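1st attempt posting a full record on here, be nice pls
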Amino acid sequence: MKCLIPVCVRWFRFAIGIVSRVPLRERIAVTAWLLSLIATPIVLWSTDEHIFPWLTSLGVFTQVVVVLSMLARTWSWQRLVSTSGTIMIGAWAIEVVGVHTGLPFGRYEYSDMLQPQLGDVPVLIPFAWLMMLPPAWAVAEAILLTCGDKTLWWQRHPLILAAFSGAAFTAWDTFLDPQMVARGLWQWLTPGEYLGIPLLNFLGWWLAATLLTAVVRPNYIPRVSLLSIYTLTCILQAIGLGIFWEQPAAALYGLIIMGGFVLVAWKREKSLWKPSSGL
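the predicted structure (as C-alpha cells):
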C-alpha cells in the first residue's frame, strides 16, 4: 500500500483543486465533510469503538449536504426534494426486500449498532445511497459523453447512463462492504467470494442503482464537482482501509476498481476541456 500513497496524494490534490473553485457554501460543506472523515480515526484512537456508528453517521450526513448543495446549483428545490425522496424511499424499499428475502443482494442482516431502524433497515442507509448515487451519475456522464458530433446516440440513452451509473456506484461497495462487515454494522449469513462478501451482492447493487437512476433520469448535474467528490471518496477509502483499518486487500482491490472509474472519467472529462482551453 505504501507505493500507492503518492498516487492517492496526487489524486487528492487534483480533486481538492477542483473543489476549491466551487461556491463558498459548497466549500464549507466539503470542508466539514473532510474534517469528519479525517477526525474519525483520531477519535477512535482516543475513545471506545462503540462511537464508530456515530462517526459513520456524521460522515454520511455531511456528504449528503455536500452533494445536495452541489445539485442545488443546477436543480430547482422541487426537483431536489422529489429526487432525494425517490432515491431514499426506493433505496429503503430495496433494502427491506433484501433483508427479508435475500434478493437481490444475498442473505444478510443489520446489527443493532446503527439506530434507528425501520423494517430492520437502519434509517442511515438510504442517506448513504443519496450521498453516492449522484457522484456515480457524474462518473457515468463523464465516461459516456464526448464533444459535439462525436457523441453516439446510445451514449445519450437513459438506460445506458443508468447502467454505467450503477457500475460506478457498485465500485464503491468494494471498499464499503468489507469495512462495515469488519466493524460489525452488518453481516452476511452466507459468506462469499470477495473478502467474505458474496458476488451476488455486487450484482444486486448494480441492479438496484441502475433501477433508481433509470427512474430518476438525472440531467444537468454539476458533473465536475460531483466527480471530484467521487474521487475524494475513493482516495479516502483507500487510505482509511489501507492504513488505519488494517484491511490492505480491500484497500487495494477497491482502489483498482473504483480508481479505474476515476481514471477513465477524468481522462474523458479532460478531453472535453481541450477545445475550450486551447490545449
